[in-house]
Design goal:
Elements lengths: L2 E7 L6 E9 L4 E10 L2 H10 L6 H27 L8 E4 L2 E6 L4 E5 L2 H8 L3 E3 L3 H5 L8 H9 L6 E6 L2 E7 L6 E7 L2 H11 L8 H5 L4 H8 L2 H4 L13 H15 L4 H23 L5 E5 L6 H10 L4 E4 L10 H14 L7 H4 L9 E3 L2
Parallel strand pairs: 1-4, 4-7, 8-11, 11-12
Antiparallel strand pairs: 1-2, 2-3, 5-6, 7-13, 8-9, 9-10
Helix pairs in contact: 1-2, 2-3, 6-11, 8-10, 8-11, 11-12
Length: 369
């Protein structure tokens, strides 16, 4: 049967809420429309503050969850308007929520957003809490998009990889006659955004222009790449809990003690190299058969980042997922719409070989309208 879902994604880049309207038929998927609602600076500040231990966290988290639900509702209403649809036309909204803490090693991952309030504000069933069941089954709870990548992008005759570059970068290996592998490679835009925000007061480095104005420092890059996470085996996932500004500050201090001060633009150039080198190293190690690399997420629009990847991986055909029929900026939100549909069909949404869970699990929880 044909059914329409709305997928909502707000990731570690903290730029805002992506909404996509997707129509699913028995064996096909069609994008009907999209919307984007930016985060106010105050919301970004609150999210970042909650990712550190602080006072009155429960109250702050609950209040922020209510704010996020209202932003999510705005995105749903904008997406409905873009498609000239009504709430009753939609089967469900699948909402990822905003990650506050990701600690699968401690048995939890936490995304907030008050799904009950979102159902109240939209008049549509909401499916949320999409990661915790995988964690309960011993998995990382991330990444969840490889199952969607496999369904949408796999080709029986070509070894492909899908690279999502958000705040964190994650890679999916789609190799014929081999299990799907998916994992977080490390920082995507997260440290780049934080560093430019700290020094220039802007939210992101458009086209990587500031990074391009500096020079990568090889000694600093070596210090950054020495982080044990990069050498860890899969399954693995990470986030701001590890790759924070505090993490960067500690390594910059180590560099300064050995080599002296470094220009801020050169740090930005080195952070871009950290992203591209960690991705390239991950492909060489875990997906050496790859012949085609398709990019999605905000980083796919970073011209300098894409140029560096092409230089590091000259043997690969590199393009955005647009050429496969799904615009790069819509892939993650569409993936969560797909996971929402899987939940209602009581079909599994995780891949145990990706997350490390004990088996296939139905992901999510329902908040009826």
């Amino acid at each position: 049967m044909s059914a329409i879902f709305i997928g909502l994604m707000s990731g570690t880049s903290l730029d805002g809420v992506d909404a996509v309207v997707v129509q699913f038929d028995a064996d096909s998927m069609q994008l009907l429309g999209e919307a984007f609602v930016p985060y106010p600076p105050s919301v970004c500040e609150q999210v970042l503050a909650l990712q550190q231990i602080g006072e009155n966290e429960l109250d702050r988290s609950a209040r922020l969850g209510n704010q996020l639900a209202r932003l999510y509702a705005d995105a749903v209403h904008a997406a409905l308007a873009a498609c000239q649809l009504k709430a009753e036309d939609v089967q469900a909204v699948a909402c990822h929520g905003q990650t506050i803490r990701h600690a699968p090693q401690a048995g939890y991952t936490l995304q907030i957003g008050n799904h009950a309030l979102l159902a109240e504000l939209t008049g549509i069933d909401v499916i949320g809490d999409l990661r915790s069941r995988d964690v309960a089954a011993g998995g990382q709870g991330a990444p969840l998009v490889p199952a969607f990548h496999q369904a949408m992008f796999a080709d029986a005759g070509i070894a492909r990889a899908i690279l999502n570059i958000g705040g964190i970068a994650n890679l999916t290996r789609l190799q014929p006659d081999a299990p799907v592998i998916g994992f977080d490679t490390g920082p995507g835009n997260m440290l780049l955004d934080a560093w430019i925000r700290h020094h220039l007061g802007v939210s992101y480095d458009a086209d990587g222009a500031w990074a391009a104005s500096g020079q990568c420092n090889a000694q600093l890059l070596d210090i950054l790449l020495a982080e044990p996470y990069f050498a860890a085996d899969v399954p693995k996932s990470t986030g701001r809990d590890l790759f924070s500004m505090e993490w960067l500050a500690e390594r910059l201090e180590r560099f300064r003690l050995q080599h002296g001060d470094i220009d801020a633009a050169n740090v930005q150039a080195t952070l871009l190299a950290l992203t591209t080198h960690s991705i390239a190293d991950a492909i060489r190690h875990f997906a050496p058969q790859t012949r085609e690399l398709y990019l999605c997420g905000g980083g796919a629009r970073n011209t300098q980042l894409c140029r560096q990847l092409a230089a590091l991986l000259p043997q690969l055909r590199i393009a955005a997922t647009d050429v496969l029929g799904l615009p790069a900026q819509q892939v993650e939100a569409a993936a969560f719409a797909w996971l929402g549909r899987r939940f209602l069909l009581r079909e599994s949404g995780n891949l145990p070989e990706v997350t490390g869970a004990a088996g296939l699990r139905v992901l999510g929880a329902l908040y009826p309208r």
